[in-house]
Structure formats: C-alpha cells, structure tokens
Design a protein that fits this description.
This protein is an alpha+beta fold. Helix content is 54%, strand content 11%. The chain is built from 9 helices and 4 strands; from the N terminus they run ααααααααββαββ. A 4-stranded mixed β-sheet has the order 1-2-3-4. β1 (156-163) and β2 (169-176) form a beta hairpin. The mean pLDDT is 95.
C-alpha cells in the first residue's frame, strides 16, 4: 500500500476535511490538506536525506497525511484518538500489520505533552508537523482581533526546515515580522514544541537548531 493509495482514498479525505472543520469551529489555524501534505513532504525529505529506505519514507508520508484526523473526535489527546482511527482504516484497507504498527505509533506520539519520538518515523513526523508555521495557516481575517496564536503564525513570513550538508544538524529557519509578533511570543506558545523537536532530532542522531531572523536561539 502506497502513499498515493492513501491520498486518493475518499473516506480518508472526508476525515481530514471534517477534522479541519472541527478545528475551524474552535478557532484553530488551518489543519486541512495544505498542512497534512506539507507535513508528509517534509517528513519524507527528512528520512530520504538521512538515507532511510523507500518503504520507511512511504510510511512516514502516510503518517503525515493522516496524523490529525483525531481532531474529528476532540482536540484534546487527538494524537491518540487519531492513531486508533488510523488503525481501523488501515486494517480495513489490508495494510500489513507491521506497517500499521509503525504508522499508528508515530501518529499517537506526534503531539507535545504526550508525544515521544519512539522511532525514526515518529521523529520525522514530529519535526515536520511542528515546523509548519506560516502566515497562510491563519484563518482570522481581522488583524485587530488576533489572539497570540494568530499573531505568531501570521508573523512568520518564511519557514524552512533543512538538514545541513554533514547531516549533523536539522535547522528550522524562520523569518518573523516583529510588527505582528515578538520572538518571546513565539517561545510562549511553541517552547514545548521546540523541546519535542530537539528530542526528535536526537532520535535521528541530529542536533536541532532554531534560527529566527538570523539569530541562533536553540
């Protein structure tokens, strides 16, 4: 079973769409197809660059695509509920048990607070998910009524996650418009996520580095 098989599945598309509608109702930033496809691409880039197999790359793309479907049930502990949903879907589609295990354990461990980078697939998913910070994810069109999450995401003019040439560091490089948000605002809401990224990088034998406006912060 390939990523393209999963991406074309109409039931999975519906779960992603409906999950994003739940988050829209709750006032969260975009978690629909732009986000999940970005996460899939970035997670695949990480494993490909580090020399992991094509099969593992396919699995991390699947995990990235399905990682947020648990928001359909509730935002709280959505990684665990999403893992259970993914298990049922992939089992019904006939995916091999070992592959299901790798995908659902990554999904179940992708969120800060409860997540642990228990495998390279989980680590790549964490890094890809937490690095997707960008202006286009903000739904609120009223700048005057932005909350801190809106301000921080809207302030990010450029976000790039790259592995260095020597494969020793993975660097999240952000360009922030400080007219909308300060660097301290970013750390206020994303500190726990950045610490999880550090653990995920270590699982991949990398050092995590955060650079904001050309200043090395982590």
């Amino acid at each position: 079973m390939t990523f393209e098989d999963i991406r074309k599945n109409l039931d999975i598309k519906t779960y992603i769409k409906k999950s994003d509608e739940v988050l829209m109702a709750l006032g969260f930033t975009e978690h629909s197809f732009p986000h999940v496809l970005c996460v899939s691409r970035t997670a695949a880039y990480i494993l490909e660059t580090l020399g992991y197999s094509k099969h593992e790359t396919e699995l991390v793309k699947i995990a990235g695509y399905m990682h947020d479907i648990g928001n359909l049930i509730n935002r709280i502990e959505h990684s665990q509920s999403g893992a259970v949903m993914a298990f049922r879907i992939l089992d019904n589609l006939g995916m091999p048990t070992e592959d299901i295990s790798d995908v659902v354990s990554a999904i179940g461990n992708h969120d800060e607070g409860t997540g642990v980078p228990i495998s390279p697939i989980a680590a790549a998913l964490i890094l890809a998910d937490k690095s997707d910070v960008r202006r286009s994810r903000v739904r609120n069109t009223d700048i005057l009524n932005f909350d801190i999450h809106d301000r921080v995401n809207y302030s990010v003019e450029k976000s790039e996650l790259k592995i260095d040439e020597n494969q020793k560091q993975i660097i999240l490089n952000l360009k922030i418009d400080t007219a909308f948000s300060s660097v301290m605002d970013f750390f206020e809401i994303f500190f726990e996520r950045m610490m999880l990224c550090r653990k995920a990088a270590e699982k991949l034998n990398l050092q995590f580095r955060l650079v904001i406006n050309e200043q090395h912060l982590i």
